[in-house]
């Protein structure tokens, strides 16, 4: 990708995050229910301790970082960051709702961290690095701000064929010309860090050692095809915006594509679409 293309991608990412922040906040409980296994893995592998400083990057509504808050104690500090002010406002509201008293909230770009070197003990980033225009730079910045022995714990989405939650809608929209074709790595995107080999190479290239990855399955529960498309339109980044812009006939055509694949995911009176996260921890 050219420099101009990457710059446009970064601008698009910002605008998308700002646009979906309100609906993402409304859907928080559904997303967090599905992603709980990923959140639990990341926090467990980070090993937060009392008095630590933990930085969460691309925090969204901040749930992963907030799960560390109790372990950090009064002497500890959680730095919740996102490059989207709208997302960060939502995180602040969620932190107040949970009674988190040891968190600060800062608008911050993960590729250009406004923190001193060796200033934090741990870094969390759930489904963030994969979307960044320069993943190597973001991970190098992460390594820079970590103290010796500090750990980064991250999650990205695994292979497309293992993620029908995204694949169903993506295939229909792509085939109908509503979204551009998927670009393979190193282009940023939902599946840009799906390969364990690539994720490990990025971490080691940034100076991390003792890298370990693990696949964590998740399940998204929806009542029907309408419920699925509504959830996607509220939360799924560029796909969400593409769906929102569809004329009614095209929406109906995409819904028909999705509904034809739904029977295989039936569980009792609902549908459960599987997903797979690739998680990594390194120091």
Short structural summary:
The chain is of the alpha/beta class and 283 residues long. The protein has eleven helices and eight strands. Strands 1, 2, 3, 4, 5, 6, 7 and 8 form an eight-stranded mixed β-sheet that branches.
Structure description:
The chain is an alpha/beta fold. The chain is built from 11 helices and 8 strands. The protein has helices at residues 3-26, 28-46, 63-66, 69-72, 85-98, 135-145, 164-175, 196-205, 225-235, 237-244, 248-261; strands spanning 53-57, 77-82, 103-107, 120-126, 146-157, 212-222, 266-267, 270-282. Strands 1, 2, 3, 4, 5, 6, 7 and 8 form an 8-stranded mixed beta sheet that branches. A hairpin with a 2-residue loop joins strand 7 (266-267) and strand 8. The chain is globular.
Q: Which stretches are poorly predicted, pLDDT < 50 over at least 5 residues?
A: none
Largest sheet: 8 strands, mixed
Structural class: alpha/beta
Name the average pLDDT: 95
The global form is globular
Determine the N-to-C terminus distance.
Answer: 30 Å
Note the total helix count.
Answer: 11
Helix content: 40-55%
Q: Based on DSSP secondary structure assignment, what is the total number of beta strands? A: 8
Sequence-ordered SSE layout with sheet pairings:
Layout: H1 3-26, H2 28-46, E1 53-57, H3 63-66, H4 69-72, E2 77-82, H5 85-98, E3 103-107, E4 120-126, H6 135-145, E5 146-157, H7 164-175, H8 196-205, E6 212-222, H9 225-235, H10 237-244, H11 248-261, E7 266-267, E8 270-282
Parallel strand pairs: 1-2, 1-4, 2-3, 4-5
Antiparallel strand pairs: 5-8, 6-8, 7-8
């Amino acid at each position: 990708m050219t420099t101009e293309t990457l710059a446009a991608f970064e601008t698009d990412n910002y605008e998308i995050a700002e646009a979906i922040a309100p609906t993402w906040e409304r859907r928080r409980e559904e997303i967090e229910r599905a992603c709980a296994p990923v959140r639990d893995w990341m926090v467990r592998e980070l090993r937060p301790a009392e008095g630590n400083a933990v930085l969460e990057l691309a925090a969204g509504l901040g749930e992963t970082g907030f799960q560390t808050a109790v372990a950090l104690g009064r002497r500890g500090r959680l730095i919740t960051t996102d490059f989207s002010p709208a997302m960060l406002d939502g995180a602040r509201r969620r932190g107040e709702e949970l009674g988190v008293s040891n968190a600060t909230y800062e608008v911050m770009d993960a590729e250009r961290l406004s923190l001193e070197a060796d200033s934090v003990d741990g870094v969390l980033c759930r489904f963030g690095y994969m979307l960044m225009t320069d993943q190597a730079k973001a991970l190098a910045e992460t390594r820079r701000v970590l103290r010796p022995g500090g750990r980064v714990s991250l999650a990205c989405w695994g292979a497309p064929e293992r993620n029908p939650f995204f694949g169903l809608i993506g295939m229909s929209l792509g085939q109908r010309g509503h979204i551009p074709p998927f670009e393979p790595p190193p282009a940023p995107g939902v599946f840009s860090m799906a390969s364990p080999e690539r994720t490990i190479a990025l971490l080691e290239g940034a100076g991390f050692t003792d890298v370990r990855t693990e696949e964590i399955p998740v399940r998204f529960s929806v009542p029907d095809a309408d419920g699925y498309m509504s959830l996607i339109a509220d939360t799924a980044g560029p796909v969400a915006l593409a769906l929102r812009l569809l004329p009614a006939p095209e929406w109906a055509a995409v819904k028909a594509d999705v509904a034809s694949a739904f029977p295989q995911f039936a569980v009792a009176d609902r549908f459960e679409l599987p997903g797979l996260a690739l998680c990594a921890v390194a120091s």
